[in-house]
Write a structure and sequence with these properties.
Distance between the termini: 39 Å
Oligomer: single chain
Strand content: 15-25%
Shape: globular
Strand order of the largest sheet: 10-9-4-5-12
Helix content: 25-40%
Order of helices and strands: EEEEEEEEEEEEHHHHH
Length: 224
């Protein structure tokens, strides 16, 4: 694993900083160490985001906070962060465009990531990464698992619940494919699909599911 150090500020006037990040297609995930310059500050509670458009126009929008780690100066003051690049960025060779971070909603200056083509690696299918959409899918998957466990112990209309769970399982596969394909799906689009799934389940929850935690999860999901 390689650690590449860059310095970013809040200037949008310059097109790119003069510190490109070089990685190799189909390689292991590298880390970028970002030191912050003029106009950018962070705290221990800062929220980060990585945005870029790949050479093949697939999009990465990563808000998974576990991929970011703050580092301090010798006095203990936060001065930057490290970011582990997602696997999706290694799938296609070429240079990224519109590549930057957001810190508490404010965007940094742009930089470039060059993905060198690896010997023997051909036209690998390239995917987008929209972490918000994936988190929504994870949420509905969790609800599905909870309903499935409840259905196993249901005393009323168990067969009907299981049929609808099978239908939900099929629809979960559909939305997962939408997000994992080359298609870009926004969080709002994912929510619309999920809301439709919940509505189509048409569970008579008062009669068939008595667990209040399950009911609350279904009602919350249906309101997204």
């Amino acid at each position: 694993m390689t650690v590449t150090e860059i310095t970013l500020d809040d200037s949008k006037a310059k097109r790119y900083i003069a510190q490109p990040v070089w990685i190799r297609q189909d390689d292991s995930q590298d880390t970028i160490k970002v030191t912050l310059d003029e106009g950018l500050t962070i705290t221990t509670d800062s929220v980060f985001e990585f945005d870029c458009t790949k050479f093949d126009e697939q999009v990465i929008q990563d808000k998974e906070q576990s991929n970011f780690e703050i580092f301090n100066d010798i006095l203990g003051k936060p001065i930057g962060f490290t970011y582990k690049l997602p696997a999706e960025i290694y799938q296609s060779s070429g240079s990224t465009t519109a590549t930057y971070f957001r810190i508490d909603g404010s965007s940094t200056s742009n930089f470039i990531i060059y993905v060198q083509r690896a010997d023997g690696v051909g036209g690998t299918e390239s995917n987008s990464l929209i972490s918000d959409a994936k988190s929504v899918v994870n949420e509905i998957s969790s609800v599905y698992q909870t309903i499935q466990e409840t259905a196993k112990n249901a005393e009323l209309d168990t067969e009907d619940i299981r049929k609808q769970i099978d239908d939900l399982d099929s629809k979960l596969a559909d939305i997962t494919k939408l997000i994992d394909d080359n298609n870009v799906i926004k969080k709002t689009e994912a929510q619309e699909v999920i809301t439709g799934i919940v509505n189509e389940m048409d569970l008579d929850t008062d009669d068939k599911i008595s667990d209040p935690d399950v009911l609350a999860k279904i009602q919350t999901l249906g309101a997204v």
